[in-house]
Amino acid sequence: MGTSRMFRVFVVLGSAFMILLIIIYWDDVGASHLYLHTPVSPGPKIPHPAPAQPRPQTSRTPSFLSDIDAFVNQFLEPGTGEPTDPVPADTSNQSEKAEERYIPRREWKIHLTPVAAELRERQEQRRRLLQEMCANDSVVFPGKNRSFDDIPNKELDHLIVDDRHGIIYCYVPKVACSNWKRIMIILSESLLRDGVPQRDPLAIPRDLVHNSSMHFTFNKFWKRYGKFAKHLMKVKLKKYTKFLFVRDPFVRLISAYRNKFELPNEDFYRRFAQVMLRRYANQPTPPASVDEAFSVGIHPSFSQFIQYLLDPQTEKEMPFNEHWRQVYRLCHPCQIQYDFVGHLETAEEDAEHLLRQLRVDNVVEFPTSHRNLTASSWEADWFSTVPVEARRELYKLYEPDFRLFGYHRPDSILNE
Ligand SMILES: *[C@@H]1O[C@H](CO)[C@@H](O)[C@H](O)[C@H]1NC(C)=O
Ligand SMILES: *[C@@H]1O[C@H](CO)[C@@H](O)[C@H](O)[C@H]1NC(C)=O
Ligand SMILES: *[C@@H]1O[C@H](CO)[C@@H](O)[C@H](O)[C@H]1NC(C)=O
Ligand SMILES: *[C@@H]1O[C@H](CO)[C@@H](O)[C@H](O)[C@H]1NC(C)=O
Ligand SMILES: *[C@@H]1O[C@H](CO)[C@@H](O)[C@H](O)[C@H]1NC(C)=O
């Protein structure tokens, strides 16, 4: 009897001791975790207690208890939709920063309503369509049957990886890609302003957004991980949330043309417009610079741009430029199982749903665009100058994109 009671007392005391150990250990892990993930310049190691909050006397426990406080406060704060961001955008006071390190970061909002069934169903359908089209042998395109291991390294340069949140984004130029790249930069917290991570997507200058040194893409894995790169990529592809945004392929081409050839762009003028003018506009010596060309009103027509895309010579010289390269060649949708497929046509709803699914809707918002987007209703006008035969050939060139992502064959412009 006596020994059994003693035994029970020991068990209880032992358990209490273990729990104490766990609490202390948890405290350390929590603190170092936050420290690692907060790339502010190292300030004082010991936090100053916040003046307003009463603190317990034990030296081990303050940050643990303040974690709990912060956690509980999340539920008590009024649901104004105001981000409860522990890193204010423009304070740079060292002692305040040291304080922040001990507040756990919640990057998502607490929502009282689930994502609309309609939006979830829409994603389900888009993912299912991709699977069906990848399995359907009547949908044929180069590279469809290869395995992920056979994809050359340089073709993985459009997959941007964010290890902090476990996100992979395949960017498709002309499909809101600047804005999504901005969001990836913000999530990576690699861009600091006054010592704290930049939080406003539109404050990031354009040339920085498209500077590849700002983005950690899969093709850079080789430099860093050598022969383990492919293995590591596969692990990340399995664990992370992968997304891309697409739009109607023909409308994307119109948008590319308007942006690169109707506006003066020296780089595109030299690399592409001069070639088109020489080949299809009877201009053996086109103006030397884009300013000269625009001052005399010369630029390739939309029809010449399409002719350039259909010319077998074009691909022989170099692969399509990313602004008009097919999405199936940029993002490998049959090798990578995307978790989220956004459409530009439903960009705002999709963006909100996606940021919520990624659990980062507290730190970033998708910037709403006030520019005039290229609209599908203009398609007939734009293609009116392109011969019907060329339109059909162009459709063949982009048919996999139409089918993989559920865009209807534009019968009205193909059957004339
Ligand atoms: C930071 O705040 C402390 C007190 O809150 C103040 O003494 C100090 O001057 C501030 N430092 C800066 C750089 O603003
Ligand atoms: C494959 O696509 C064709 C249309 O090109 C369709 O008729 C067929 O039913 C599809 N096959 C499967 C198994 O879905
Ligand atoms: C892919 O494989 C299927 C059979 O599994 C075959 O019918 C098709 O021709 C192959 N496509 C390519 C592009 O190799
Ligand atoms: C991209 O950024 C790096 C460093 O941030 C800079 O050295 C490089 O010149 C930039 N490239 C372009 C094309 O702006
Ligand atoms: C957008 O389109 C409308 C009507 O089509 C036009 O009046 C307006 O000037 C356009 N805005 C810009 C910025 O191009």
Characterise the protein shown here.
This protein has a domain at 98-262 and 299-416. Helices cover 48% and strands 5% of the residues. It is elongated, with a radius of gyration of 27 Å. The protein has 18 helices and 6 strands. A hairpin with a 2-residue loop joins strand 3 and strand 4 (196-197). Helix 10 crosses helix 12 and helix 12 packs across helix 17 (388-404). The strands form 2 sheets. The chain has a 4-stranded mixed sheet with strand order 1-2-5-6, sandwiched between helices. Bound molecules: 2-acetamido-2-deoxy-beta-D-glucopyranose (NAG) (5 copies). One 2-acetamido-2-deoxy-beta-D-glucopyranose (NAG) is lined by residues 93, 95. One 2-acetamido-2-deoxy-beta-D-glucopyranose (NAG) binds next to loops.
Could you give the topology of this structure?
Layout: H1 2-36, H2 62-76, H3 94-100, H4 117-135, E1 159-162, E2 167-170, H5 177-188, E3 192-193, E4 196-197, H6 206-209, H7 221-225, H8 229-239, E5 241-246, H9 249-260, H10 266-280, H11 290-295, H12 302-310, H13 312-317, H14 327-331, E6 340-343, H15 347-357, H16 379-383, H17 388-404, H18 411-414
Parallel strand pairs: 2-5, 5-6
Antiparallel strand pairs: 1-2, 3-4
Helix pairs in contact: 10-12, 12-17
Bound molecules: 2-acetamido-2-deoxy-beta-D-glucopyranose (5 copies).
Residues 207, 211, 213 line the site of one 2-acetamido-2-deoxy-beta-D-glucopyranose.
